[in-house]
Write a structure and sequence with these properties.
Two copies of one chain form a homodimer. Chain A is α/β, with parallel strands linked by helices. The first copy, chain A, is built from twelve helices and ten strands. In chain A, helix 2 packs parallel to helix 4. Chain A is globular, with a radius of gyration of 18 Å.
Chain lengths: 266, 266
Amino acid sequence: MNKEELLAQIRKKGSFLCIGLDADLNKIPKFLLDFEDPIFEFNKRIIDATKDLCVAYKPNLAFYECLGEAGWVSLRKTVNYIPKEIFTIADAKRGDIGNTAKKYAETFFETYAFDSVTVAPYMGEDSVAPFLNFSGKWAIVLGLTSNQGAFDFQYLQTEERPLHLHVIEKVASWGTDRNLMFVVGATKAEELAGIRKVIPEHFLLVPGVGAQGGSLEDVCNYGLNDEIGLLVNSSRGIIYAGDQEDFDQKAREAALKMQQQMKQYV
Amino acid sequence: MNKEELLAQIRKKGSFLCIGLDADLNKIPKFLLDFEDPIFEFNKRIIDATKDLCVAYKPNLAFYECLGEAGWVSLRKTVNYIPKEIFTIADAKRGDIGNTAKKYAETFFETYAFDSVTVAPYMGEDSVAPFLNFSGKWAIVLGLTSNQGAFDFQYLQTEERPLHLHVIEKVASWGTDRNLMFVVGATKAEELAGIRKVIPEHFLLVPGVGAQGGSLEDVCNYGLNDEIGLLVNSSRGIIYAGDQEDFDQKAREAALKMQQQMKQYV
């Protein structure tokens, strides 16, 4: 999916919501465990109930991998079930060198037809560049993350700037705002202004709104650009809003609440 | 596997060789493509031919993931086929926060019974700590990598030290030399002396000998400690030493050559 198509979706739906599909057998409603593929059944119902309110879905790979081969089957069915006009993100945070990175790109862009994959920057250019050579596909590179551990390295002063700004500027030089996005956590909303100076044009994938405490209003105030430029993710706050038979409707209500807030900015 | 068991293997075999199982359908001998599971068949023969010469096997996850569900089946069969006294490394370079990191740990330590998994440090403590709570299991964290891209961020000056030394010291404080190792590329052998001052006791997983140009002698001169403290990896240089029916014997010859060099240090 290219940038215009993504932006068209955002304008059409009045939403820049990304829903994280972190389906966990221990957390999904119990009645789903009687289905042949409970994870897919859960995702399918979440997708059916929310697809007009969001512009992206983001399965978190760890939740599928831990189920072994069956988890990857559920993942494949889920990606195939997502309507083609909705942007898909493999939240895999891969990062390895050259030929290995290319294999990861093939995994997520070809073997499983995702539009994008999250990538870790530590190993540098030859670990990111192989993801940038696929037409209509995106690498979403970790910039400043939403977790407590972000303070361990991402704020280290490097050449008079915190590491994350150095990473974002350098990574941005390897691609364009048409094949690269960055992860910037909502819990660091005040940092978005500084990051926007470095990458005014790029889309940012923003986790951390909701369960992790980030504010949508703050994220919008500091992070919006002329082409919206934000995909704000919520996972648990939406998909686990209910735990009964009507969990999909509860998820819809939670998604609708976010979309209603978002539409004023679109 | 605990540290004593690993060390006992090293002393018994006169080897600290790790063989990277980067099995690629485009590179394995053509005659194997007639088998039901060519990747497993390739790995099986490599393991049969080299298991007395090495102390660890390291499947590179990208090569399995790109094959979809079938790749994970080949991976599972491979891990199960490796003799229990040999250390197994899932070269997956995972890194994500809290609950997600725990799912990745479960994936590699429980769903697929690896002894260890490689982990990326960028997201900080809550992305590494969840791997440290499994008895007899190890996280192997990226310190200084062997690729060109290592120069992009890992040498940035942070508080008067290059980032990788900061990362290694900080990560080491989260665990012990019994549940943590570090990746340090052989192509940076001269850096090993400085790294050994920070972590004298830890095992280092050293890729980059052979195809990438690192020297085993340099690595040993700078990296050995009283308990050996090194796992030196070779992938392509061993597994693709031959491309005919006798590829496993060619692999054995290449592994034997490395083991012969290693035994003088053990």
